[in-house]
């Protein structure tokens, strides 16, 4: 009995290109998403104004509609960039041993006290330097 060869499915070149991960594509997509979000926010806040003579976008509220649409696309792009990172991060977060309530309050109090003391020391140094320089300069 003869063995028939299975017909191998031929992959589409388009699907091959779309499913191939490139080294810098997430970085580029993240940069473009942040830049387009900033651009759209400047248009929405009217920091950046679209001239009325600009085709299509300059008429009526088309510029604002474009800006909101661009912001939505930018946020989707950021989600696409962050999703692979977050997908791997969530199982690791579940492995963390979180402190008890008492230990958390104790550590928070220590941090707050340290911050206040450090702030006071820096304020004292700043005050002393200003006073010393004021006496040297003669003001």
Which parts are unreliable, with pLDDT below 50 for 5 consecutive residues or more? none
Q: Report the span from N to C terminus.
A: 108 Å
Q: How large is the share of residues in beta strands?
A: under 5%
Could you say how many structural domains there are in total?
2
Query: How many helices?
Result: 4
Give a count of the beta strands, DSSP E runs of length 2 or more: 0
How many strands, what sense, and barrel or not for the largest sheet? none
Q: Tell the overall outline.
A: flat
Structural class given helices, strands, pairing? mainly alpha
Average pLDDT level:
86
Helical amount: 55-70%
Radius of gyration: 29 Å
Order of helices and strands: HHHH
Notes on the protein architecture:
This protein folds into 2 domains: 21-96, no CATH class; 97-139. Helix content is 70%, strand content 0%. The termini are far apart. The chain is flat and about 95 Å long. It has helices spanning 13-19, 25-44, 62-94, 101-137. The chain is mainly α. Helix 2 (25-44) crosses helix 3 (62-94). The longest helix has 37 residues, at 101-137. The protein has 4 helices and no strands.
